Amino acid sequence: MRMLSPISAVTGALMLCAALSAQAEVSGQIDATLNVEPGCLIDSAGTPDGSAGYNFGTLDFGTVSTIWTNPLQATLSSGGGQLSVTCSPGVDTFTVTINGGTSGNGATRNLVFADSNVPYQVFRDAGQSLPYEINQPESFTVASAGESIAVPVYGLVAPNPETPVAAGTYVDTLTLTFNF
């Protein structure tokens, strides 16, 4: 068996001590930031700005026979016919744009079933005098921060007294875009 010399043992011990004392300490900092920009919440569901894909409700025109003689009116199912927008300080106005729907042709919004369609309109008022034109932004003024601003949405299908339409459930999907 081979024996270590006393010099080798001392050298090894010194190297071990040097290695243990050679540790260093480094410290530093991390910056944390948060950028808060003015924005709005839409409806009582608290839809935050920058969000997409929310269902704001339904315009339900009801059930009729294949011919109807009176206009069919619809009120947005959530919020009593309107959405509610509440904005933070720094937002003075916002716009609402409603597209032509998934079944529209660029000039008319249509409810569609199979190969049949029923045109309809969307309005800002229950009296159907202020239309939401297709892809045209409508401006709303924010009088004071934190105030709830009503964004009404009403629908109208004109009477169809002469030409029967196919029986079925007619549908369309509108996209509402809020910009502030």
TrEMBL record:
Protein name as annotated: Spore coat protein U/FanG domain-containing protein
Every Spore coat protein U/FanG domain range: 28-177
InterPro entries on file: Adhesion_dom_fimbrial_sf, Spore_coat_component, Spore_coat_U/FanG
Signal peptide limits: 1-24
Annotated keywords: Signal
Record lineage: Bacteria, Pseudomonadati, Pseudomonadota, Gammaproteobacteria, Oceanospirillales
Keyword Transferase among UniProt keywords: no
